[in-house]
Design brief:
The chain is 50% helix and 9% strand. The chain contains 18 helices and twelve strands.
Length: 406
């Protein structure tokens, strides 16, 4: 096990912008050292594939941050328990999580997702039709606008409001980064994140009230109508659910599409193969989710004392799961640093596991499949024009742009 003498500096390297383009050497150092225990911070960091999976599956593993010792200590000092308001069900535990997810899931029924495919195909074709000249920014021209258009259409949000949504989404996505966990300090733009969160919740609450009096064929109306055994979602719960879906469904899908394009561009044989055989899209997507996941790390709290990989985690301690490290664990995968959609051990934890498995996984896979098959078919000779710059996000790590020469 890594001692507490050096891991703080190693973890801080994950926050260093100079490592954003390629954090995997840092992840490998952490992985090689084993679990990190930092009792003074009530923090345990797991990085192996087995340990991360065991935490996600453990019945005492909690998603509600209020169960953590750190949160309770701050609340005792007068801190606001939930400064951003009602959390989405992803950050709650049973029975609240079970109830909210079950109601929200009705709006993500398989037939609803399948019914979106024709619209997604049309959106992708329209985006690629706009490309002119001999260059393409795979983020700005495809990976970014597609999920935004899909989630805005699903929620019933006017597309002209998309720029405000995008700004709020980008700021709130940074709120998932472990800055406070690793440093104990607030980030410089914390006030901007708070402001964005309040604006977004107010905006969605206004849409909910509109739909209560004039329902439409959209997700907000479906969440209002969702009912099971006489139980319905409150306005706060609908707002929190839409807030979660907007950020999680937008930022992660952008990264999935862009990361897949970059991985294929670095190994051009896969780009050409997908252009020839669209059926390869499924394995390209699953290997991208392992090799360069849109969600790099996740947090859990020990609801009770737990033992993971021989490490005892006290009740209330926060557990940081370095998913991106675990999915390149040589004890779990052959040639883990190689992008290989044809590998026999094609598996990952990118969508989570157990009761918190990603509700939007089928939609993300649909959007990525349509986008990747279309862009490779349209531009079979595309090449990487320059190394891509990255956004500041650590948890939802992704590119700011991805220039291709056509």
């Amino acid at each position: 096990m890594t001692t507490t003498a050096g891991p703080q500096a190693l973890l801080m390297q994950l926050l260093d912008p100079s490592n954003r383009a390629d954090p995997y050497p840092v992840y490998r150092q952490i992985l090689d050292g084993g679990p990190i225990q930092m009792p003074e911070s009530n923090l345990v960091v797991f990085s192996s594939f087995q340990d991360c999976g065991d935490v996600l599956r453990h019945p005492s593993s909690a998603s509600d941050r209020l169960k953590s010792t750190v949160a309770q200590r701050e609340i005792a000092k007068g801190a606001e328990p939930r400064p951003f308001g009602q959390p989405g069900f992803l950050f709650l535990d049973p029975p609240d999580h079970t109830r909210l997810r079950r109601l929200a899931q009705q709006a993500f029924a398989p037939k609803r997702v399948r019914a979106l495919e024709a619209d997604v195909v049309a959106m992708v074709d329209d985006l690629l039709d706009r490309v002119s000249g001999d260059s393409l920014d795979a983020v700005a021209d495809l990976a970014y606008p597609l999920p935004v258009a899909v989630i805005c259409r699903m929620l019933g949000v006017p597309i002209e409001d998309e720029p405000q949504f995008s700004r709020a989404s980008a700021l709130l996505a940074q709120g998932l980064d472990p800055f406070i966990t690793f440093t104990g300090e607030l980030p410089d733009n914390f006030a901007d994140r708070m402001s964005a969160g309040h604006w977004l919740r107010g905006y969605i609450a206004g849409l909910v009230e509109e739909r209560r009096t004039a329902p439409r064929d959209d997700l907000i109306s479906a969440l209002i109508a969702a009912e099971e055994d006489g139980d319905q979602l409150t306005t706060d719960e609908i707002v929190a659910t839409c807030n979660l879906l907007l950020i999680a469904g937008h930022e992660t899908t952008v990264n999935l599409i862009a990361n897949a394009i970059l991985a294929m561009q670095r190994e051009p044989g896969h780009w050409a193969a997908l252009a020839e055989d669209p059926d390869r899209a499924a394995t390209i997507i699953e290997e991208t989710l392992r090799y360069d996941p849109p969600v790099q790390l996740a947090g859990r709290t020990a609801g009770e004392e737990m033992t993971i990989g021989g490490v005892t985690v006290p009740k209330g301690d926060t557990m940081m799961l370095l998913l991106a490290a675990g999915q390149r664990d040589p004890s779990a995968f052959g040639q883990p640093d190689t992008f290989d959609p044809d590998r026999d051990d094609l598996r990952h934890l990118a969508f989570g596991h157990g009761v918190h498995f990603c509700l939007g996984a089928p939609l993300a896979r649909l959007e990525a499949r349509v986008a990747l098959t279309a862009v490779t078919r349209r531009f079979p000779g595309a090449t990487l024009a320059a190394e891509p710059p990255y956004k500041p996000n650590v948890t939802l790590r992704g590119m700011a742009s991805l220039p291709l020469a056509l």
